[in-house]
């Protein structure tokens, strides 16, 4: 009997993380009778192979193990597992990672309901592992590379229709030691009739090992560059010129090539610096078009452009400035420019557009501010979000701006200072409550910059746990819970939730259960 889904797991020295991975597969609600799990041991030396054999004995007919000599990367074991797969769909799982119990059932049900060839399920990172969340903003039946953030999610953690994979003979390029899943996924996405995404909850946890020994983190720059070149060449072959191909190239330049031009380059030997600059410059010459460059942030655009020009010394000087406090900003003819040492250097003749930060001026204003506190306070019976801030040493404020506001949604107030006092703003909560939907709302707090021709927003960011506590207050006609939240970057948001009788009774019930629990 054909399984609904074949799960392929490439395994190399992943203990103890492998235990949780295998347990999560055994607990899938789709049922062991509808699954085939192919575990490929790629020459592990840490006992992973024994662990695989034990679970295969425990669940015969579902789990099967292939043992092979180490191949040097995940591509070969993934291909061996794919050759053994017999399910209608195939799903690849990282041996460090784990799934929620309903992950496979949800993916298969969505593929069946909508005739989807590829289904992405919402992922989240653990232990500092970054997972781009663009395509997980909402559940969608049909997405594509050109009009969504799919190009930023080219990992193989997706459900693939196996007939599609076999019809087009899609396999992992075994010559790539890292990122071999991206050409595989890109080929599948290109040939798929429909790509869907299930984003209603987190289904898959991507785990960064405590010693950061995942191959994603440990690859040498030479390997990363070679793999990036291969992926971009693959996009050239598979995709016609246009928005979809540009989206893939932009992702590779932003996330892979530009990573090689970060401040760590300063610590390398000169020969290595020259080799990396030349390699990235080669990619930039081929793929950094004006259209793609215009969508990059100024730092990446400048670094890639300097590499393309072969201006290594200027690139190193630019990185050195970024390691310190960043470049000063000058305003000229209504535009703002990052005044790096190579800005308007006659010997280099670099265009001003490489230094233009006008579209990011709000972020630069935010960099020039140190937000000291965010709290909810009352004055004369009126509640407000209170923000206090100071100007960072050496910062120029407001950087050509005619006005800087603190904003939450459509509500904003000016950031001002009384004589001898820090910058501050009081954002009235009444207006936010009036616009609050029945289920509540989370308002990101932003600095809103007016000037230099238009209006721009930048997040209010505060380091460390310096936020006010959760409060319950009568606001307008109801009682609301107000909580300040921060994400991993320190961006602050105000979470407003109406308090209903269901909330109150639920809270009381939990309190009573806790008190009744034996000690």
TrEMBL record:
UniProt cross-references to Pfam families, sorted A to Z: Glycos_transf_2, TarS_linker
Domain of life where this protein originates: Bacteria
Domain spans labelled TarS/TarP linker: 229-317
UniProt domain Glycosyltransferase 2-like: residue ranges: 6-124
PANTHER family, A to Z: GLYCOSYLTRANSFERASE, UDP-GLCNAC:BETAGAL BETA-1,3-N-ACETYLGLUCOSAMINYLTRANSFERASE-LIKE PROTEIN 1
Name of the protein described by the UniProt record: Glycosyltransferase
């Amino acid at each position: 009997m054909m399984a609904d889904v074949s799960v392929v797991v490439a395994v190399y020295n992943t203990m103890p993380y492998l235990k949780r991975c295998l347990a999560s597969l055994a607990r899938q609600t789709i049922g062991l009778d509808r699954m085939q799990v192919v575990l490929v041991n790629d020459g592990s030396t840490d006992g992973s192979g024994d662990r695989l054999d034990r679970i295969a004995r425990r669940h015969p007919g579902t789990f099967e193990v292939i043992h092979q000599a180490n191949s040097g990367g995940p591509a070969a074991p993934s291909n061996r597992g794919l050759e053994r797969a017999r399910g209608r769909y195939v799903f690849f799982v990282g041996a460090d990672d784990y799934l929620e119990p309903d992950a496979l059932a949800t993916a298969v049900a969505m593929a069946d309901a909508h005739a989807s060839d590829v289904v992405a399920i919402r992922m989240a990172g653990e232990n500092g592992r970054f997972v781009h969340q663009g395509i997980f903003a909402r559940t969608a039946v049909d997405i594509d590379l050109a009009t969504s953030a799919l190009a930023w999610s080219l990992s193989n953690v997706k459900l693939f229709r196996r007939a599609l994979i076999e019809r087009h003979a899609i396999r992992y390029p075994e010559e790539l030691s890292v990122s071999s899943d991206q050409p595989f996924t890109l080929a599948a996405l290109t040939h798929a009739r429909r790509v869907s995404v299930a984003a209603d909850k987190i289904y898959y946890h991507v785990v960064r090992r405590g010693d950061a020994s995942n191959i994603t983190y440990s690859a040498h720059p030479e390997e990363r560059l070679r793999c990036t070149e291969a992926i971009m060449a693959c996009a050239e072959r598979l995709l016609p010129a246009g928005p979809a191909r540009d989206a893939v190239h932009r992702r590779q330049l932003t996330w892979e090539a530009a990573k090689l031009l970060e401040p760590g380059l300063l610590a390398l030997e000169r020969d290595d610096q020259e080799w990396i600059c030349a390699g990235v410059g080669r990619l930039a010459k081929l793929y950094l078009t004006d259209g793609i460059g215009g969508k990059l942030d100024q730092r990446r655009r400048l670094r890639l452009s300097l590499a393309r020009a072969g201006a290594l010394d200027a690139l190193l000087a630019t990185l050195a400035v970024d390691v310190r406090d960043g470049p000063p900003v000058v305003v000229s003819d209504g535009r703002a420019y990052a005044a790096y040492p190579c800005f308007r250097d006659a010997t280099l003749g670099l265009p001003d557009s490489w230094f233009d930060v006008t579209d990011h001026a709000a972020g630069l204003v935010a960099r020039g501010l140190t937000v000291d506190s965010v709290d909810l306070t009352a004055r004369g019976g009126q509640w407000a979000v209170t923000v206090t801030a100071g100007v960072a040493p050496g910062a120029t404020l407001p950087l050509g701006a005619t006005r800087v506001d603190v904003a939450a949604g459509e509500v904003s107030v000016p950031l001002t200072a009384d004589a001898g006092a820090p910058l501050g703003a009081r954002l009235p909560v009444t207006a936010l409550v009036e616009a609050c939907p029945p289920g509540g709302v989370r308002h990101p707090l932003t600095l809103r910059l007016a000037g230099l021709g238009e209006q721009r927003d930048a997040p209010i960011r505060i380091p460390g746990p310096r936020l006010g506590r959760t409060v319950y207050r009568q606001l307008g006609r109801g009682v609301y819970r107000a909580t300040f939240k921060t994400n991993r970057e320190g961006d602050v948001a105000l979470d407003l939730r109406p308090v209903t009788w269901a909330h109150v009774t639920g809270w009381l019930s939990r309190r009573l259960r806790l008190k009744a629990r034996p000690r």
